[in-house]
Amino acid sequence: MKVLGIETSCDETSAAVADGPRRVLSNVIHTQIAQHQPYGGVVPEVAARSHVERLPGIVEEAMRRAAAGWDGLDAVAVTSGPGLATSLLVGVAAAKAFAIRTGRPLISVHHLDGHLYSVFLDPAFPEPLRGAEGLALLVSGGHTSLVRIRDGRRAGLLGATLDDAAGEALDKGAKLMGLGYPGGPAVEKTAAGGDRDRHAFPRGLGPGTQNAPCGGMRRDLCFSFSGLKTALLYHLRGHPEDLDPARGLPHLAASYQEAVVDALIARVRRAADLTRPAFLACAGGVARNRRLREKLGMFAASAGLPLMLAPPEFCTDNAGMIAAAAAAGLGTPVDPPGALEIRPTWPLPVEEGA
Predict the structure, then answer these.
(1) What is the C-alpha end-to-end distance of the chain, expressed in Å?
(2) Minimum mean pLDDT range among 90-99, 210-219, 296-305, 321-330
């Protein structure tokens, strides 16, 4: 099954062609980092305008690199949520047009299903096994979740963030430290060589979140990073000298990054103890962080669990994972194509008994 995938949920414009669920023929991505850097974060209107300008050429390039003709396509797949409404509209409108013009089926894909499936796009990893249950940590700019995987697909949400996602915590921390946008890579680069134990930052749910609703999920499997950001803010008010790039800043960045990673690992450990998974997986933009990958590897080795990490090229928002997920049957066919609507807020269902 050859699928054209389109992804415009936030600030990456991407198109890809997959030939079946494990073979991505092309994956073209335009990132808008330079356009949003002056604002210190993603501006929805800027993102949408860039998608409108870039998407036609990116689709053409994806088709060219895949050596695919329109007659050879079996379906068109698109991210229809969650994401920025104005950005989603651009990709969904284009996908509708392509599907109607070519007479091909249109498949709606949940953005997070694409991220979860991306761990299977490394050819070194096994095929999704029937009946095999895994535990996935999904960490991206706007999402931090623990998800059970069964038969290669999402089985249920076990835990999620109550406020900021891990990526947002890194972005906001980077802004406080004057490191610019995007924050995750900036914090990681600055933290290199820093002392991770120099400063003590919170790792868990702070006093202000103890009574926050968890939506039916276990509290000890949920995340909260707002207290960490506040702790950094107050630390800098009392110790502005730690912003000195030659002396204090590397230690500050390393300590802050370690707090984010430790909070993630602690919940993964608890979820693994509860669910006894056959494997551990990690996907999403923050999954590229080297310290997170290192500590996940250490935990997986100690627990005797195979670790499946999304390949770096499929960690950020990309259409390759969307096309492959659709080819694997993870999307929803929409007939007629014109009936597809965007879902900017599209929550993952909580697993019963979580």
Answers:
(1) 35
(2) 210-219
Q: 131-309 falls under which CATH superfamily? A: ATPase, nucleotide binding domain (3.30.420.40)
Please state the φ and ψ torsions of residue 134, each to the nearest 5 degrees.
Answer: -130, 170
Render 79-148 in DSSP notation, one character per residue: EEESS-HHHHHHHHHHHHHHHHHHT--EEEEEHHHHHHHGGGGSTTSPPPPTT-EEEEEEE-SS-EEEEE
R_g (Cα) of the chain, nearest Å: 20
* Cα–Cα nearest to 274, from 112, 163, 146, 113: 146
Token pair in block for residue 68: 């695919």
pLDDT on residue 151:
82
Rounded to an integer, what distance in angstroms lies between the CA atom of residue 313 and that of residue 24?
Answer: 11
What CATH number does the domain located at 2-117+315-339 have?
3.30.420.40
As to burial, measured by CB atoms within 10 angstroms (0-12 exposed, 13-18 middle, 19+ buried), residue 52 is: middle
